[in-house]
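pasting input
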Amino acid sequence: MIKGSISPKMNNKMNKSLRRDISHIAIILGIFVLMILFFFILKPNYLSYDNIMTILLATCVNGLLALGVSFVIFTGGIDISVGCVMTFSSVMSGIALTKWGFSLPLTIVFGFLVGAFCGAVNGFGVTKMFLPPFIATMAMQMITKGLSLVVSGIKPVYFTSAPGYQNIATGNFLGIQGFYNAIIILIVIAVIAYIIFSKTLIGRFALAIGSNEEATRLSGVKVDNWKIAIYSLCGLFAGFGGLIMSSRLNSAQPQLGAGYELEAIAAAVIGGNSLNGGEGSIVGTIIGALIISSLTNGLRIMSVSTELQSAIVGVVLALAVYFDKMRRKNA
Amino acid sequence: MIKGSISPKMNNKMNKSLRRDISHIAIILGIFVLMILFFFILKPNYLSYDNIMTILLATCVNGLLALGVSFVIFTGGIDISVGCVMTFSSVMSGIALTKWGFSLPLTIVFGFLVGAFCGAVNGFGVTKMFLPPFIATMAMQMITKGLSLVVSGIKPVYFTSAPGYQNIATGNFLGIQGFYNAIIILIVIAVIAYIIFSKTLIGRFALAIGSNEEATRLSGVKVDNWKIAIYSLCGLFAGFGGLIMSSRLNSAQPQLGAGYELEAIAAAVIGGNSLNGGEGSIVGTIIGALIISSLTNGLRIMSVSTELQSAIVGVVLALAVYFDKMRRKNA
Amino acid sequence: QPASKDTQDDKPYIAMIALGYGHQFWQAVRQGAEEAAKDYNVRITFEGPEEETMVDKQVDMLKTALANNPAAVALAAIDVESVTGILKDAKAKGIRIVGFDSGTGEEAEAHCSTDNLQAAALAAENAARILNGKGKIGIVGHSQTVIDAVQRVDGFVEKIEKEYPDIEIVDIQYGDGDHLKSAEVTKGMLQAHPDIDLIYTSNEGACVGAYNGLKEAGKIKEVLLVGFDSSAAMKEGVRSGEIVGAITQDPVGMGYKTVEAAVKLLNGEKVDSFIDTGCYWYDASNMDEDHIKPLLYD
Amino acid sequence: MGNKVIEMKGINKSFPGVKALDDVYFDLNAGEVHALVGENGAGKSTLMKILTGIYSMDSGSIMINNNKVNIDTVRDAQKLGIVMIHQELNLMNHLTVAENIFIGREKKRMRIFLDSREQNEKSSEIFAKLNLDINPNIRVGDLTVAKQQMVEIAKALSYDSKILIMDEPTASLTDSEIEDLFRVVKTLRDEGRSIIYISHRLEELKIISDRITVMRDGRYINTVNTQEADIDDVIRMMVGREIFAVKQEPFTKENAPVALKVENLNAGRMVQNVSFYVRQGEILGFAGLVGAGRTEVARAIFAGENYESGDVYIYGKKVKIKNPSDAVKAGIAYLSEDRRRFGLALGMNVDENISMANMKEFSTLSFINFTKSLKNSQKQKEALDIKTPSLKQKVKFLSGGNQQKLVLAKWLSRDSNIIIFDEPTRGIDVGAKSEIYKLLNDLAEQGKAIIVISSELPEIIRICNRVLVMCEGRITGELMGEEIDQNKIMQYAIKRNISNGRLTS
Ligand SMILES: Nc1ncnc2c1ncn2[C@@H]1O[C@H](COP(=O)(O)OP(=O)(O)OP(=O)(O)O)[C@@H](O)[C@H]1O
Ligand SMILES: Nc1ncnc2c1ncn2[C@@H]1O[C@H](COP(=O)(O)OP(=O)(O)OP(=O)(O)O)[C@@H](O)[C@H]1O
Ligand SMILES: [Mg+2]
Ligand SMILES: [Mg+2]
């Protein structure tokens, strides 16, 4: 065995982790670029400034949900409640603002807390009630779906009393025409997610739990607590999604939500994250979300009929994951 | 080490397997009975002959889907395409009957084949394309959802040209008033599913794969082929569901389908089947499906508002699975 | 003409975005719109979110449609509030805005729709007439949130409560417009209230679902059924008298008139700001008459 | 002895970053037991996996009965009569013993219906032949590791194959079980079958093998006839260097403080009234037959599993341990007997695994200090001579023995006061084994209290200052210094408590 000195490896550390990330997402990055070129050639205004901004804005909600769900997926779990939790958090902050007279900043924080709380309950179900994640979060999906309707009285809750609420998402960032705040919010939160994932214990333990939960527990890690934290984090991200969603619509729509979770999971998985847990990449998730929204947008711009769009997204989903698996097999 | 005599153990075998099954479903059987009593006390006509038949009929479609999905769950997989595959198979048989002039029996068989084919494609995705089951079947869900609309021209396909089609599901069995054929079909198919599960290779290998896929493969079992067979079986059951569904409505409704898969999975899981695979019970699945339909029916009879129904089913789902887990932990 | 033309096509382009997509109602609107497009030689696209609840998807669709430089946009907004800003910008660019069905609020230069409240009241009137002003009614709705659906229930309830004191509405349940679910809902309702005389349903899925539920419960014609919208199954039910009657809203006409209004706006002609496409009661006795027959669709 | 049934020539195989096999030669005669030995990571398992169609070789040729063959799948190998018992257990835990044995070759009635009765009977026959008492109708997951191992062996025997490969079959067996196994192996050989036998227990080779092939660092070194061979030569060929040998001194620091004291511990069926102590600097052994409940004692102390009653004192202070995290905080470390299930995150890399138990140390305010953790991992890697291309290598690509060292490294990083080793040398080669013994000694020297659970009596005898023997969940005896010998241990190990009517099932 040849002993390498330590220091060069240390210096290479950053490069390596970056390189690993890039190789991790190489295939989907390729797919993404090809897809964009394809649409651009057929419809040059696909890459018009306005349309790019439209795509980015359309990525925001799904991107935030996908980021949250990614952490759960790293642990080998799944969260199918994020869509409904998102809605529930926005409905609750709407109620807080209009009925309980919360100030705007408080309202926003309250919405986040509601999301995190739902996530914590999911985590509680998974750890203390021994529910499989799919079941715990399916129950949460049904519960928040019902509660959103009950709490709102089955009516949209409007944020019109808080002028400026709509600007949170759709105002122009630094006054740049067409550059929505929501996009910056997504970018900032994605960077935070990246840091949480790669530099903190929560990311490390998410992967460790996904890789071998029992071994992690026997290493003295309080797996249950970390899992609750991770599900709460996922709920918190759903709360972020709820903020962007309700701000874009200037209202909380209680009936919305179901269906968004699948898209979020699809984004995470297209982004190269294995549902078995134990490995993953935040950058991948974001690209996955971008692929979905730019594909949908492209199909719309090409006036592909709505019914075919769903089928095409399905095929792309399968192929993207397939190519990614192939790359890994050959690596 | 002291040797017990072998033969008494042997003789106990059948008893044991039955006993295992009963202990497996003891808790949910208890929940089921309690629930029925609860509704019966509040609304005595809950247990009227007519209402019992209504509940049983309402169990049919979900029960068939749940049976199919159970086999996939035994392998540790999941199939979220069953709802849309069911719709697609009924749309296709509608087309075969009305456009291609198939005879009625041929139409029915064709519908089953379409279901099984979709299942086989799922299996292909899972085995040969290395897709996680969730993803393969999510893609299939999107694809069949789109294709159902495209093929049908976004219109219901009517079976009115085949008189008697509606009787397949809602005719009276042996002329017994109110005793629908669909119920007998469900019972017969459930028995067949039970036999397939407990007496044939497909059931054995489903469990073996769910328990330890790699070990099964290393034992020389052609795991891929069996998985394809199991997913096809699941698709076939979705085809059965499509038959009952379209016969009840005397038409194939192309926009239906999404959402049915979650209910089917919920039934299987309430029935005590672990999403990790490796163990399970067909009897459990059927009871799970009965719990869902009798709960929903009971809530409707009590005029509980629709939005609360969803939340209540969510809570019951979580609790049922929780109690079942507790039983196992203590066993 | 300030509106820009599509580069690949000389015909003016009109983007239509509906509330939903899968229901026959929207497909009938689409059919009418396509007929008008042919007649007036314009190009249209017709889309809608897969669920009638997905507000943000509809907003994305609208934005994407605008990226294709349409001459006019026709929209049935799920939530008017959510599109007002975008429509304002579009209008400023010279794009003409037409509303249909649920409409687009202030920004529309023309609005083609039926009054769902009024249509539901018409259903109530007929139901009351059939019951001779006395009896118990159950309602199977298709959504608690989509505006049309809510109005179709509210209008019915209001009318009955106001004008028919001897009629009681005993239960309202929702079946998502899913045929099977609506059948189960109906049967559950009959179990809870065996004395129901009539069931009113708010769309095609609810109606056909209830129709099957009644058939399965062996209560057809014993419990009367009033429906909404149209489809082959409903027409057959109405013809046989098993559905006593239903309301149709002429969605084909709505689609046609929407495109027509947009074309007229593009040509600088004057257009009425509100175009009522009406609502009609149909039953076995009148469904083959000339003014009803074309309004029924499959 | 006669004709070659297998001849493997010029076999090459690379994994990313590792040349696992380099021009390897191997042959097998009809009716012989051929031992294959080598250090951890020498490539033994890999070579056998190529022979059984699990891996495909990069180049080389395989002749069976002098015909060139292609073995692409497990089925191909089975058809050629080659069956392997893997180093790591490969069982379906949810299925019954009989179902596991006959997986893929189910007995059927009327072509489609499964016949569990016949399978159960056939399984019982095999167990009878092995002189084992295992109920074929019990779920495999409910058996101990050792019994599971026996099921694996029964399964392989049931193939009635011409060539049987055993990859460390005795790693988790006790002496009496090993005797049974050897008896079976000899019967099979006398029936004319050929057996490839991989083991790190070199003392077994003289008893069981006819020839020995030695591998080192992925290369073929030599083949010798066992009769003529000197085991020390074999070791030299394997290791290529001298071996460190320890002779355990009797424990002298009798008044060293008691580090861990357990009183009247009851936990589930398998831990009854267990009381013992271990002093700082002492190495305490737990001996007993497989299934005696030693692992249960360790897990009850470390993870509070099945805990019913009893007290645990650490340095005289009573502690309540409800989960591993409490134990780790209290300064206890536990190396489990099944590293793949309980010891390692196989999908993560070497560094991440080594630092797992100690992340608090390697992070500030939850932010990970990568430099610190890598530095520690590098130190451990060198100290334990862990063979890995880099600290970023995924653990699943390491050989079995190196994986075991990794678990050790994890706990050594943690600097715990009390360390429980459950079968610490399972699957570890002689060289590494003696290093681990030295390490245990060093750790004791440093003042750590050490508990070693081992089913290898020579190991217990060689390294322990004091030995407790368990039988059926109770401590049946205590031996010290000169008293520690094979016979005494065995006497205590079978000292059943007949009065309470309990029998092993
Ligand atoms: N799937 C794999 N991917 C990458 N490297 C591997 C893989 N399997 C084995 N190796 C490497 O190949 C080499 C040989 O491993 P192998 O398991 O054959 O050793 P072994 O002789 O059986 O050792 P042990 O006695 O520890 O089981 C090791 O360096 C190991 O790290
Ligand atoms: N998961 C389990 N379920 C049921 N019984 C078990 C389980 N694990 C172990 N046992 C039983 O507990 C007893 C003690 O097993 P344990 O693993 O503690 O033995 P041990 O003395 O540590 O032996 P070794 O470690 O050598 O296998 C055995 O009789 C075994 O059958
Ligand atoms: Mg090995
Ligand atoms: Mg043990």
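fyi Chain A is about 75% helix and 0% strand.
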